[in-house]
Structure formats: C-alpha cells, structure tokens
Design goal:
By secondary structure, this protein is an alpha+beta fold. It is built from ten helices and 22 strands. The model has no long low-confidence stretch (mean pLDDT 95).
C-alpha cells in the first residue's frame, strides 16, 4: 500500500489543526494531511464563537475541561503573543441577579480556587466600579479570562503545522484495514491514504467514526446559539456572565466585548434543524431524521423540555430575549440588539439522553476520534491537540 501521509486528520477546525501542529512538533518528519470539506479553515465552531479565552472556573476539578482550559488559556495567550494575533487578558465578571443564585456563585468561587484560578468576590459597590450599567446582588471577578481571534489562531496553526492541507475535500467513504491503514474517498473522487486516521470533524464526528467502522456510542445533536450585537457598546466595558445552571452545559446569555471592539450578546441554545443550521430556514431532512432516530434525543427532550422551552421562546421573540438581557443590563432596549451571525454547538448526547459534559476522545484500530469538543475546546485546543497527537503517534508506531 502506497501512503500519501502518515497521519490523516479529518477536520480543519482549531482542534484538527492543533493536532496537526502538535504531531509535526512532537515527531518531525511525520507526514500529516488535513482534509476539510469547506474552502478554508475554521468556518464552523471555531470561527463562529465569541472569541473568549476561558479561565476554566466552571469545570469540575480534575476533568479534562478543567485541566486543559486552565493550561490552554495560558498557552493560548502565549501563542497569540508569539505570532502577533490580536488578543487581550481582560478578566470577566460572573454576576448573581437573584438571591437563589448566591449559593451557586459561592460554589464557583470554591471551584475556581480548586482549579488554581484567581477569583475575587465583589459586592454591589465593587461590581458598579467594574461595570456601572450592570446590576446584580454580588459578583466574582475571574482575572485570567481573555479574548482573541480564534480564526486567526487556526490559520496560523495551519501554516505552522507544515501539514498538507486539502480544502473542499468532503469525506464520503472510509476503508480501514486494521493491519495496514486507511483510504479515504472525497466527494470529488480523490483518494487519500494514511497509516492512521484522526477524526476531528466536529459537527460530523460521529458520522466519520461510523464510516471508519467504529460505533461511537453517542450522537451529535446540534444546538444553535443565536447572537445579537449591542448597538450601544459603551454600555459594557468587558465580559459579563450570569451564574450558570450546573444541570446544563450552556452558560446562558452573556455580554462579551470582542477583540475588535464590538459587544456580542448571547447566545441562547435551541435545537438546530441541520448540523450546520445557522437559521430556522436551514432544514436538512437527513439531519433531522438522524436526531429523531437517536433514543437519547427523546430522553434528553423529556428531561429538559422546560429549559428548552425558555430557550425557544427567546429565539422566536426578541422581546423575550431582551428581557433576559435586562436582568444583567437594565438599560438595554430591544432597539439596542442587532442580529449577528449564529453558531452551532456540536453536543454529544449518549443513548440514555445524558449530555456528555467533558471532552471525549476514543480510539479504534488505527484511528483516534474526538467525539465531544464544544466550548472551551478553542481555549484548550493546544493541550487537546497534544493529547490527540500523542495517541495518533502511539497508533502509528504500535
């Protein structure tokens, strides 16, 4: 068998490109190819988020999210500085607007300290000093949170990796021979052969796993996050978040001043009718059928219907969305919110309906599959890439 590369990475988002970058640094001379179905890198989850470098304050101590976010945040700041990519360490506020949220806010203080993150508690007067227009009973300040341009990070990783990049290369078939390697057929008829496959396909990672012949035990259920841009950005100085509900992986509607000066408001989280369904008008029957056929989707819906109903209400009603924002920012009006580009989160859901909370990486014969890497995966992309690279190189030499 003639190989076109040693490691074949499917997916040109920040995790796939970080993996390629890590492989060529850990094992110089290793031939890496990246297949990306879009005409360029970082056009889905990587390029459609709010650009936050997360501190790791939310995540369970000892989890991959906690470990990789804390380490990744520091590394991302260093990477951006080294390659002159726009970034800033701004800190952020997490604000309790109701007395019922105060115990959860105090729990975040403890969790942050367990994760080694500097967290400072603020009263109302101190909150007003940081954000005069934000209202709350109490807040915490997380100093290591920052912002950057993740699309620019992904482009730099692509350049620095030295990988053979194939854009417009949609994978339609995979032939794996456990004793030999993989051959991948793309939609234009090209065949690319590699010794080891790495699946970083994001919204399509479960499909790629099954094409490889591995049953992932989960399915990607796409959730659209809808954003607005704040027409009066002077109302917000930095990053302001509500206290999240620990029963859900979503952080709630928040205010994020981006690296280019605008303020994003959102996102909410509603089921998308396509894996790349960035609006209600985008419907792909095959994607919808795949979601409905997965038992976990129905079990998830039964358990979380009330929470989901609130998210749907804020999606179809700008007034309802505005009321949610006004809990944090009373001065905002409906006219201050200008529709902005949406994103879609690739959320892994198990057969029992539970939402996979941590990063999930599994291995098969001559294959490594990244099966759950939503936020804070962009923040954590450098350590995630090293871990996936380590597994791929082990499969290559094993």
């Amino acid at each position: 068998m003639v190989y076109d590369c040693d490691v074949l990475v499917i997916g040109g988002g920040i995790v796939g490109l970080s993996t390629a970058y890590a492989i060529t640094r850990a094992a110089p001379g290793t031939r890496v190819a990246v297949l990306e179905k879009e005409p360029g890198p970082a056009l889905h989850q990587t390029g459609r988020n709010s650009g936050v470098i997360h501190s790791g304050v939310y995540y369970r101590p000892g989890s991959l999210k906690a470990r990789y976010a804390v380490k990744g945040a520091a590394e991302m700041v260093k990477f951006c500085a080294e390659y002159d990519i726009p970034h800033a360490v701004t800190g952020k506020l997490i604000v309790a607007t109701d007395r019922s949220e105060l115990p959860r806010l105090h729990a975040l203080v403890q969790r942050g300290r367990e994760n080694g993150i500097p967290v400072r508690e603020l009263g109302r007067a101190q909150l007003a000093e940081h954000e005069p227009e934000v209202r709350g009973l109490a807040a915490i300040h997380v100093g290591t949170t920052g912002i950057c341009d993740y699309a620019a990070v992904a482009r730099r990783l692509a350049e620095a990796s030295g990988a053979d990049l194939h854009y417009g290369a949609e994978v339609v078939r995979i032939d794996r021979r456990p004793t030999r390697g993989v051959a991948v057929l793309t939609a234009d008829g090209t065949v690319v052969r590699g010794r080891v496959l790495v699946n970083c396909a994001g919204l399509h990672c479960d499909r790629i796993a099954r094409l490889t012949g591995d049953e992932p035990g989960m399915r990607i259920i796409p959730f659209r996050g809808e954003y607005y841009e704040l027409a009066r950005p002077e109302l917000v100085r930095g990053l302001v978040y509500p206290v999240p509900d620990p029963a859900f992986p979503f952080l709630g509607v928040h205010l994020t001043r981006g690296i280019h000066g605008g303020v994003h408001v959102g996102p909410n989280a509603v089921p998308a009718l396509a894996r790349e369904g960035y609006g209600w008008g985008t419907v792909r029957p095959g994607d919808v059928a795949g979601t409905l056929a997965w038992p976990g989707a129905w079990r998830m819906a039964r358990e979380h219907w009330r929470y989901g109903g609130g998210e749907l209400r804020r999606s179809v009603s700008k007034g309802a969305f505005t009321r949610a924002v006004r809990k944090l920012l009373p001065a905002v009006t409906s006219g201050d919110l200008v529709a902005a580009d949406a994103g879609v989160r690739a959320q892994a859901v198990l057969r029992d309906g539970s939402l996979v909370d941590d990063f999930l990486v599994r291995e098969g014969a001559r294959a490594v599959h990244v099966l759950n890497a939503p936020s804070p995966a962009a923040t954590a992309s450098l350590p995630i890439g090293r871990e996936v690279a380590r597994r791929a190189l082990r499969a290559l030499t094993g």
